[in-house]
Design brief:
The protein is an alpha+beta fold. Helices cover 35% and strands 27% of the residues. Bound molecules: ligand MV4.
């Protein structure tokens, strides 16, 4: 039984994880940098340990310091949250070897999914639909031209070690192939220490749809519905929802079936997300995230489950109640707006002191945040400071409640992305559910959705 959890993270997710631990009677240990001494996650936790200076390499990515904090506080388990060390196989290994329970998947699965080429290779073997492409690394311009000729332009070059949109280049004709291949390989080598790239047919107007999965150590796997995460800016999600406003029941069942089958084949354990591009009625697997995701609350709202609780139960070896979970039925509709401390016009970070602070409430509104009056938003970390999550019987009601919530929300002293969210929520195409992965960037540039 897990009695004390060290939360190896900061911000809203550290607060979020603490809350579930509190519900389960589990004590928590916060770790923090010198810049976060007064952070909400530190105030809430039962104990806290300062693990280093403000820079992430000295604090939230400092593996030995985190393990030492777990040792001195007598924690049983470590929850990595998202970002930071959550998808670092070496860290997962180190946690286990130091005698703690890692609240997350096996290191082998983290490693496999961190390599996009290996992940796609597995996907094909496991019957997941993938985008036509090179099916492996591409080393020469002549090979790249051959593949592009076969699948047709435009194509996209992606870094094997990339993911989340980093290290990608679209190639529209054969004349630019040689240069773009070279640039992508060089950039990948510099950014990830791994210059391998692969090629896919470029989809022009896809949507991003992902399936939440949950698996225990006894071979039980369930899906917890899908999330529509199409509205992104520079590969950062801005607004997510569940269910997707675009899928029909047949499509939904199809993507759930392939996702569950693949996880069974993988012997996956924990929560995971299968990401797909969706275009013209077809799904294409692109990657799997082996962590709890930022947008997990929309899944919690429609399923009534607490995903952090499920992670903890699975980590201590409990069997999923398959009778109950096998019939997890999503009900209603949930939307999440990510609120960043940033200028809503030029998107520059806006750290500083929060002066006024008033949180929205009422039916169908949930706030996952790390703010309080007079708190500081340090400049060193992710600008996302709050998530507003709405819930309604249907999408229309979830939108109305989200509008109410973002209007009520007062965050004084810093700029936030609340004004952008207000504009999105009034947009005709958004309301119709008519958009693709390029829509939000176009809208921000002053164009149509
Ligand atoms: C693509 C694509 C079009 N065609 N792959 C971006 C993040 C990474 N997870 C995959 N991404 C894309 N891969 C092919 N073959 C377009 C994107 C893409 C995108 C995907 C999901 C959400 C937002 C996006 C924004 C731009 C590009």
């Amino acid at each position: 039984m897990i009695k004390k959890v060290l939360i190896a993270n900061r911000g809203e997710i550290a607060v979020r994880i603490h809350r579930t631990c509190r519900d389960m009677g589990i004590h928590t240990v916060a770790v923090h940098s010198t810049a976060d001494s007064d952070a909400l996650h530190v105030k809430m936790a039962n104990e806290s340990v300062c693990i280093g200076n403000a820079s992430v390499s000295e604090s939230y990515l400092n593996m030995p310091a985190i393990i030492a904090a777990a040792e001195v506080t007598g924690a049983d388990a470590i929850h990595p949250g998202y970002g930071f060390l959550s998808e670092n196989a070496k860290f997962a290994q180190m946690v286990t070897e130091s005698g703690f329970t890692f609240i997350g998947p096996d290191p082998e699965h983290i490693t496999l999914m961190g390599d996009k080429i290996e992940a796609l290779k597995f996907a094909e073997e496991a019957g997941l639909p993938t985008i036509p492409g090179s099916g492996g690394p591409v080393e020469s311009a002549s090979r790249a031209l051959e593949i592009a000729e076969k699948i047709g332009y435009p194509v996209i070059i992606k870094a094997a070690a990339g993911g989340g949109g980093r290290g990608m280049k679209v190639v529209y004709d054969k004349d630019s192939m040689k240069d773009l291949l070279q640039v992508t390989m060089t950039e990948a080598k510099a950014a990830f220490g791994d210059g391998r790239v692969f090629i896919e047919k470029y989809l022009e107007k896809p949507r991003h749809i992902e399936v939440q999965v949950l698996a225990d150590k006894h071979g039980n796997v369930v899906h917890l519905g899908e999330r529509e995460c199409t509205l992104q800016r520079r590969h950062q999600k801005v607004l997510e929802e569940s269910p997707s406003p675009t899928l029909n029941d047949e499509e939904r069942q199809r993507v759930f079936d392939v996702s569950i089958n693949a996880c069974k084949k993988l012997n996956y354990v924990g929560v995971g997300t299968m990401e797909f591009l969706y275009e013209k009625g077809e799904f294409y697997f692109i990657e799997m995230n082996t962590r709890l995701q930022v947008e997990h609350p929309v899944t919690e709202q429609v399923t009534g489950l607490d995903l952090v609780r499920q992670q903890i139960l699975v980590a201590q070896g409990e069997k999923l109640d398959i009778v109950k979970l096998g019939n997890v039925k999503a009900r209603g509709h949930s939307i999440e707006c990510r609120i960043n401390a940033e200028n809503p016009d030029n998107f520059l970070p806006s750290p500083g002191t929060v002066t006024d602070y008033f949180t929205p409430g009422g039916p169908g509104v949930r706030i996952d945040a790390c703010l309080y009056p007079d708190c500081k938003v340090p400049p060193y970390y992710d600008p996302m400071v709050s998530k507003v999550i709405s819930y309604g019987n249907d999408r229309k009601q979830a939108i109305k409640r989200m509008r109410r919530a973002v209007e009520e929300y007062i965050i004084g002293g810093i700029d936030t992305s609340l004004p952008l969210h207000k504009r999105i929520l009034e947009n005709e195409s958004f309301i119709k559910g008519d958009f693709d992965v390029n829509s939000l960037e176009r809208f921000i540039q002053g164009g149509n959705f």
